[in-house]
Amino acid sequence: MTSLPEGLTAGTWNLDPTHANLAFSIRHAGLSRVRGNFPDVSGSLEVGQELEDLRFTVVAQVASVDTGNEDRDNHLRSADFFDAATYPEMTFRSTEVGKKTITGELALHGVTKTVELDYEFEGTATDPFGAYRAGFSGTAKFSRKDFGLTWNAALEAGGVLVSDEVRVAVEAEFVAPTAA
Question: In whole angstroms, what is the distance from residue 74 CA to residue 62 CA?
Fold first, then answer.
């Protein structure tokens, strides 16, 4: 058993969506990275007695995807990509938490696969309004094809428009349960 990071206390901590960012990037035409995020997120952190008892759950509404380009966002919401009407949520539930890696099940586009997230515990603090918070950041990579996201277009010079590898970056603050 491994001790909890300093400052974490047992109970259910709620994700603060106003202090969370679930971002992604993907290579476009082999030339640059397109970045976006999912601003409509919710989640929780279950804290037990040991590090191994931590359980993270994060749910993103895929229709909230925002890349800063309305046409691209609408294309991402369509059946070519996320098919937000059929699969409105993307969910991550941890299954194992180690000192630097979180393993969990990512459900996206009707497919659930195991992914690993490298993470850092950023610490705890009480904000000016009395809420006790814990911060985490993390990164992951996965194949979009593993989740049935296969739309693409061939480029005249060779290659494809959208890369297979998706990079994810997460910043999250969780708020501690209040005493009854």
Answer: 11
Q: Is the distance from CB of 108 to CB of 147 less than 8 angstroms?
A: yes
Q: Identify the helix (H) or strand (E) that includes residue 98.
A: none
pTM exceeds 0.70, yes or no: yes
Close Cβ partners of 143 (under 8 Å, ≥ 6 residues apart): 164, 165, 166
Given a contact cutoff of 8 angstroms between Cβ atoms, the answer to whether 61 and 87 are in contact is no
Cβ atoms within 10 Å of 79's Cβ, excluding its own: 11
What is the average pLDDT across 79-92?
96
Q: CA 147, CA 167: separation in Å to the nearest integer?
A: 14
- Give mean pLDDT, residues 13-40: 94
Identify residue 14 by its one-letter amino acid code.
N
Q: Which residues lie closer than 8 Å to 58 by C-beta, 6 or more apart?
A: 15, 22, 41, 42, 43, 91, 92, 170, 172
7, pLDDT greater than 90: no
Domains annotated for the chain, with CATH where assigned, are 11-175 (2.40.128.110)
Pick from 25-29, 79-83, 148-152, 176-180: least confident: 176-180
